[in-house]
Amino acid sequence: MTRAEIIEQVRSKASFLCVGLDTDLTKIPESLRGSSDPIFEFNKAIIDATQDLCVSFKVNVAFYEFLGIEGLEAMRRTLEYIPDEHFVIADAKRGDIGNTSTMYAKAFFETYNSDAITLSPYMGEDSIRPFLDFKDKWAIVLALTSNKGAEDFQLQQVGENGRALYELVLERVASWGTRDNTMFVAGATKGEYFKNIRAMVPDHFLLVPGVGAQGGDLHSICENGLNSDVSLLVNSSRGIIYSGHGNDFAKAARQAAGELQAAMEKELRLFGLL
Amino acid sequence: MTRAEIIEQVRSKASFLCVGLDTDLTKIPESLRGSSDPIFEFNKAIIDATQDLCVSFKVNVAFYEFLGIEGLEAMRRTLEYIPDEHFVIADAKRGDIGNTSTMYAKAFFETYNSDAITLSPYMGEDSIRPFLDFKDKWAIVLALTSNKGAEDFQLQQVGENGRALYELVLERVASWGTRDNTMFVAGATKGEYFKNIRAMVPDHFLLVPGVGAQGGDLHSICENGLNSDVSLLVNSSRGIIYSGHGNDFAKAARQAAGELQAAMEKELRLFGLL
Q1: Using 50, 70 and 90 to split pLDDT, how confident is the model at A192?
Q2: Nearest to A95 among B73, B93, B97 (CB)
Q3: In the prediction, which pLDDT does B213 show?
Q4: Are B148 and B126 in contact (CB under 8 A)?
Q5: B27 included as an active-site residue
Q6: ipTM for the complex?
């Protein structure tokens, strides 16, 4: 999917919502558990209920791998079921030496047909480059994450000019790819850093986890992160998919996604982007 | 598997060899390609041919994910087939926020029954801790990798005392776990750094990729990395499993593994560890 296609979808839906499918067998309604593929049935209902309110779906690969072969089959069916117009992210946090990264790229871009994969930058340029060689596919590289552990390394000062590691990551990774094949993960619980991230990568899309269960504030993200092409994808997983616990889970998910979409539309209007 | 069990196996086999199963469908002999599960058949033959010469097997998860559901099924069968005495590593380079890392830990420690998983430290303590809560299971954390990209971030100076990022990783990660549940990846092509790594983590096992195809030198690794409990696992993947290309591939793999085992035995005797 191209950058222009993503932006077009954002404008037409007045939404930059990514719905995170962190689907956990122990948290889905009792009524689905008798199905032969309860994870897929749950995801299908969530996708049907939210697809007009969001521009992207993100599968958290861990939740599928945990279930072994059956889980991966549910992930495969889910990725196949997501409508073509949506930007599909495999949240996998991969990154390895070149020949192995090429295999991960083929796995997620070809075998599973995702548009994008999340990557850890720790192993450097040759671990990221193989993902940039696929046309209209995206590397979404961790810069500043939303968890407490971000302080351990990402916020450490590097070099002599007092920059943090995440800033060096932004600078270097942005120089390897372009705004047409690279995005960055920027945690929403670190609202005070957004202004700086946007200044460093003015044109790149930012994938923002941490709204909802992790406590990020949408207005502050928009104030600091929006640009003239919007260039934000804000993810909510648990806050949407586990919004209800009974048989009306899909309706509850639609309600939660609708509230986020409305809040996003309000921000887009506030900043003159609609 | 406990640390004592690993050390006992190293001593009884006079080997600290890990055979890397980076199995690529395009590189296995023609004769196996007609099989219903050629990847597993190839791995089974390699395991049978090398299991008395090595103490560990490592699956490179990317190579299996690339093949979709069938690849994961081949990985599952391979992990099940490896004899219990071997230390089984899932080379997956994972790491995510806490609840997701817990899912990855369950995936590889329970669903796939590995003894260890490789992890990227970029997301910090809460991304690593979930892996340390499993009895007799191991987190193998990237410190200094063998690829060129290691220079981009791992070798950057952090803080005011001129340490490199990989040193901060060693120090912090070592403080979260113990020598009984944590190992570090230390690239063999960086022989000059081994002395420093061993000084910083005198008691931890180091997993050393990069011998063979990546050009690391065994003697220099041993000189700088061995301690009184050996505490090294040296991996070779392509150098062993693709040593032959015809129907005698397993024999050729045994030959290559045997040469490495003999070289390791020589080093162990040289340093008075046998």
Answers
A1: confident
A2: B93
A3: 55
A4: no
A5: no
A6: 0.95
